[in-house]
Every structure is written in C-alpha cells, then in structure tokens.
Amino acid sequence: MWQELAVAFSLVLIIEGILPFLSPDRWRMLAYRMADLESRSVRMVGLASMLVGLVMLSFLR
Fold first, then answer.
1. What is the reported pTM?
2. How confident is the model at residue 51 (pLDDT cuts 50, 70, 90)?
3. Contact, 19 vs 13, CB < 8 A?
4. DSSP of 8-33, one letter per residue?
5. Residue 15 neighbours by CB distance under 10 Å
6. Which three-class secondary structure state does DSSP give residue 55?
7. What are phi and psi of 46, to 5 degrees?
8. How many CB atoms lie within 10 A of CB 30?
9. Given this model, what pLDDT does residue 40 score?
C-alpha cells in the first residue's frame, strides 16, 4: 500500500509540474488570479477537482 501511495504522490507532482515547466508566465498569471478569488471560490474549485478525481478513479478501478 505504501508503494502505491508513493507512486500516486509522484504522479501528482509530475502532473502539477507540467504547467509551470511548459508555460511559467501563464502559470504565474493563474496563481495571481487564484490569489484574487474569494476563499469560497477556491474551496469550490478544490472540491470540484477532488470529485473529478474520485469519479475518474472509480471508472479506472
């Protein structure tokens, strides 16, 4: 189980690093826009992201 968790975490880091690597200026603009959003909006984006990931995981299993 720990190895699977480490693999999953590694994949998250790889996926999270794609945008800053390919387009750092666009990533920076996105970070500035996210900083201007209300906490509730950021929370909703996080919830939507988790739900999409949960649905994808359930389809893959």
1. 0.66
2. very high
3. no
4. HHHHHHHHHHHHHHH-HHHHHHHHHH
5. 9
6. helix
7. -65, -40
8. 13
9. 95
What token pair was written down for 24? Answer: 């750092």
d(CA 26, CA 56): 26
| CA pair distance 21, 36, nearest whole angstrom | 23
pLDDT digits (tens, 9 = 90+) for 4-50: 889 999 999 999 999 999 999 999 999 899 899 999 999 999 999 99
In 3D, which of 38, 34, 41 has the Cα closest to residue 19? 34
Measured distance CA(38)–CA(42) in Å, rounded: 6
Tokens of 43: 């929370």
Sequence spans of domains, the chain:
24-61
